[in-house]
From TrEMBL:
Gene3D superfamilies (UniProt xref): Vaccinia Virus protein VP39
Name of this protein: Uncharacterized protein
Length: 231
């Protein structure tokens, strides 16, 4: 069954949980105070949005924490691949929750990503994290597919029609029957969401998680969380 709806986010505050002009964002998660370095100056480069945090990343990370604490999701020892990791908050939270995480992004985004992983994953960490280069649509290294991940996660990865087919090609290669895909995104453009939906439903069952299941302190009608599983 397909569970899908597009909300109109006009009554919700933009950037409720982030300050993109700041060089650092602090957030409490998993019993730690995480410090996420940002590079606001990079936003002036066309196509570079992963140099700062967005609400969808905060919401997805806190959703994973809340779902693990409530027993809805079990990440201990699970293999997780994060697509478009950007500043790395979501992947770091997944590692703190016990997952074996591979955080990925384009080659020119990896320096900031690695720095944030090193800064926040110190001492006693339940899981692990490593940073790998990944360009959607390219052939995947065996690290990604042997074995296939239990979870594929990402925030703000549905942002242009041009990227959708490469994203879907990578998802199809990454995912087996046991893989759950969890994607969070800000609701900016209905046409792009519809284009993604049309492509995704060819291979996946697509659902959307009700806000009642999110972390109660991190909700926004500007953001949606989708779940995909292979048919």
């Amino acid at each position: 069954m397909l569970l899908w709806a597009i909300q109109q986010p006009i009554f919700s505050k933009h950037n409720a949980y982030v300050t993109q002009s700041s060089l650092q964002l602090n957030i409490d998660a998993c019993g730690r105070s995480l410090s996420i370095l940002q590079s606001p100056s990079s936003l002036g480069t066309a196509g570079v949005t992963g140099s700062v945090m967005w609400d969808s990343g905060i919401i997805l990370g806190k959703f994973l924490e809340h779902s693990t604490e409530s027993g809805t999701i079990f990440l201990q020892g699970k293999k997780v691949v994060e697509l478009g990791s950007g500043c790395g908050l979501v992947g770091c939270i997944a590692a703190l929750l016990g997952a074996q995480v591979i955080l990925t992004d384009l080659p020119d985004r990896l320096k900031l990503l690695k720095k944030n992983v090193e800064t926040n994953l110190y001492g006693d960490v339940r899981g692990s994290a490593k940073v790998n280069e990944l360009t959607w649509g390219d052939d995947l290294d065996p690290d990604f597919t042997d074995p296939l991940p239990d979870y594929v996660i990402g925030s703000d990865v549905i942002y242009s029609e041009g990227a959708v087919m490469d994203l879907m090609e990578t998802l199809a290669e990454l995912c087996g029957k046991q893989t759950t895909v969890i994607l969070a995104g800000e609701l900016r453009n209905d046409a792009i969401l519809e284009y993604f939906l049309e492509a995704a439903t060819k291979e996946f069952i697509v659902g959307r998680i009700n806000q009642e299941q999110w972390h109660p302190d991190y909700c926004s009608s500007r953001v949606a969380i989708y779940v995909l599983v292979k048919k």
